[in-house]
Amino acid sequence: MAENPFNPALFRDSAIPEDTAKLNAAMIELMTPLPEWWNTSAQAARDGRRAGRGPFPPPVFSDRAQTITIKGRDGNDIPLRVIKPQGGGTRGIYLHIHGGGWVLGAADMQDPMLERIADGTGLTVVGVEYRLAPENPYPAGPDDCESAAAWVLQNGRTTFGSDVMTVGGESAGGHLSAVTVLRMRDRYGYLFRGANLVYGVFDLSMTPSQQQFGNTRLVLRTIDMQQFYNAYLPTNPDRRQPDISPLYADLKGLCPALFTVGTKDALLDDTLFMYTRWIAAGNEAELAVFPGGAHGFTLFPNRQSDEALERGNAFLRSVTG
Known about the structure:
Distance between the termini: 37 Å
CATH architecture: 3-Layer(aba) Sandwich
Strand order of the largest sheet: 1-2-4-3-5-6-7-8
Largest sheet: 8 strands, mixed
Shape: globular
Strand content: 15-25%
């Protein structure tokens, strides 16, 4: 029998580490009584996150970070949050796109993780403060990410000391990273050195794992995805357009990618399907599956988070070496 590229053992509950199971149980207990962001407002949810209310650790802001502002294609200001490796030198640039369902999150909300990436890879991290829905629905977010990538491509060597560019992000940031990879290929003829796509959403018409996840409040549920889509795509266009759902794009001729996901994530299928299509299009790709990992598991202090971060750093080092 031929070797199965997907190890079934990874997806069984027996493979879930004890500390991961305890973290998931604690997350469900913590999140179940929390109010829904769509019953208050997106801004109230953002303010609560910044104040440290909710399931995620309170933000810690880096004293190493600097902010520069560029102009977007609509004439809007786009702040870029820059964290350089310790020591001052740089081997390249990591364009980081934050998550939060296109509605929540911010470029300065994960500074400790971005410091570890900068120091672990030797890359200058450039975080994109893209416009958020529902105030700024599609295509504002991806337009800002494209504008940031194009600006870094043109100005990276003079501003940061390198024009070697990688891209990546988590959740909606993984989605916007994939969209940016495609736009830069199609509109600029440019290929990133690599894409670090962490539990991204790649099919906004909803994969089976999104539809079947149910209402267990383990960070991300079926209804959460539906509400995020309603905010990001209020006019309800064809959600399988490649610029909206990159799973349906022509994926030929793309850069190497690392796909990371946990088995208890509503977006599990998105990663498995996108990894398979990336490979089938003839591109290099790696798949990192973490048994029991919930959506957002890399943002919590736990052993799997450390393992995933180092796997991502190793990938970024390999494509920029």
